[in-house]
Amino acid sequence: MSAFVDTMLSTATGAGGQAKGMTTGEPNNPRRRTWAEVHDQASRMAGALVEGGAEPGAAIAVLAADPAEIAPAVQAVWMAGGSTTMLHQPTARTDLAEWAEDTIKVLSMIDSKLVLLGSPFDALSGVLDEHGIGYRKMDDLAGGEPLTTPVPVDEESTALLQLTSGSTADPKAVRITHGNLMSNAEAMRIAAALDTTSDTMISWLPLFHDMGMVGFLTIPMLFGIELVKVTPVDFLARPTLWPDLMSRYGGTITAAPNFAYSIAARRMSTVEDDNAFDLSKMRLALNGAEPIDPAAVHAFTEAGARFGLRPESIMCAYGMAEATLAVAFAPVFTGLSVDVIDPDQLEASHRAVPVPEGTPNARTFPLLGPPVPGLEIEVIDEERNVLGERQVGQLRVRGEAVTPGYLTVDGPLATQNAEGWLETGDEGYVVDGQVVVCGRRKDVIIMGGRNIYPTDIERAACSVDGVRPGNAVAVRLDAGTRRERFAVVVESKSAGDDDVEKTMRKEITARVVDAVGLRPFAVVVLKPGSLPKTPSGKLRRSAATSLVPVG
């Protein structure tokens, strides 16, 4: 049995499994089950899977919305010796025909012969029938005979096939082994100083995303930590549900991307009652899903201060599915620390030269902490020479948690070189042992010999009144040519009002010029919901190119 499965079952059948558990169904129908109760259901589902012919190593996909259904289902898959793939969920705006086509492509890519269906997606069983894809409804698995002895697997067996949130139409899955998963989980337990007796984790993150699946389901289930889990739909319907859950359940750990911290800050700032929330127990509010926006962090801590939120609770991090989840964690309870550097040296010389805080046009990057235990990071140049401190290049990572490869539509693809290094595709540097990420290499805009990071442009655009927070994209045009330039595309509720749009375009242009010293080729204002995004909500810069008129 792998160490991962052994630890999970030891937790479920031990004292921690009886004392700790997960609460789902908030805000309307909250229900708490201990991890022992989740395991009891999982063992019955695993028994039904094995009896139904599921073979060791089988890739079993899961499509459900309710965390109460998903938790025992994924544990059942692991007990049955299979690997789990969380399928992307269709939303109200999804074209079901396109979703079905993409899903069938994914199932073929991972060679999955079985999908576990839960509410409300069991209604999509007809789509699977049309394509000859086998499925079992989760409700039908609950009556199986318990599987008392898990199917044995080794450390190199696949535990999780994590679908990436890429910007292309072709899917790709990161192959995470049992050894990868256990190594990174243990590293996060140490780096975040997890306490199974006192910590309570609060999350609304989607379970088809690595942070939601690994960070806020697998880890609490593995180690026996109290968890309150709702869905992204619940959060978006009422963003103050998030701080409300922190208050009522005494939440100590949570995580979210920039846009969520911005939304929560705005909503909390409109609450008149100073006693509406109690955020004093929060010790880790993690931000690491994308380049961290210091303004979003400050807005959240300022709005939460009157409810007892301590700014030191912010934890900046660097993560990627290719390293299972965590790559670097800032030291616990140190808050947001930034590196202020000379923009000219960064753009022209690829060096992060520090300047005093408050220097005009200085670049500010959050310090993301040292690599978590078991991982190491280097910075390399275009010829793969290792660079020194404060020299900017591509980050690469090596260690026990790093995936051995991808599954793609064209077959397996290795990720590591002969020495075990994985190139991340991220630009960054190291200072005093801490990692700094500047942006994705493929998104860097090159003009006049300067490297312009799109996040600088996007943050400048988002500072303009009327632009939806987190909904601005800097788009490369004529990339890689001497004519390379960029445009800015934003969402606004005022889109369609010619006078307001004209004012916004003028103001966005001025803010961008102030920020990066370059004028955008075009500024496009669109209605909310127009920008292309990945299933996990990240903006797809390359796909936004088609939104810019270049005639």
TrEMBL record:
An example Gene Ontology biological process: fatty acid biosynthetic process
Q: Does the keyword Nucleotide-binding apply?
A: no
Q: Which Pfam families match?
A: AMP-binding, AMP-binding_C_2
Tell me, what is one Gene Ontology molecular-function annotation carried by this entry?
adenylyltransferase activity
Q: Which InterPro entries match?
A: AMP-bd_C_sf (IPR045851), AMP-dep_Lig_C (IPR028154), AMP-dep_synth/lig_dom (IPR000873), ANL_N_sf (IPR042099), FAAL/FAAC (IPR040097)
A Gene Ontology term for the protein's cellular component = plasma membrane
Q: Which keywords describe this protein according to UniProt? A: Ligase
Q: Where is the AMP-dependent ligase C-terminal domain?
A: 449-541
Q: Residue ranges of the AMP-dependent synthetase/ligase domain?
A: 30-407
Q: What PANTHER family does UniProt report for this protein, alphabetically?
A: DISCO-INTERACTING PROTEIN 2, DISCO-INTERACTING PROTEIN 2 DIP2 -RELATED
> Which NCBIfam families does UniProt cross-reference here?
PRK07768.1
Similarity comment text for this entry: Belongs to the ATP-dependent AMP-binding enzyme family.
Instruction: Report the protein name in the record.
Output: Fatty-acyl-CoA synthase
Tell me what organism the protein belongs to: Umezawaea tangerina
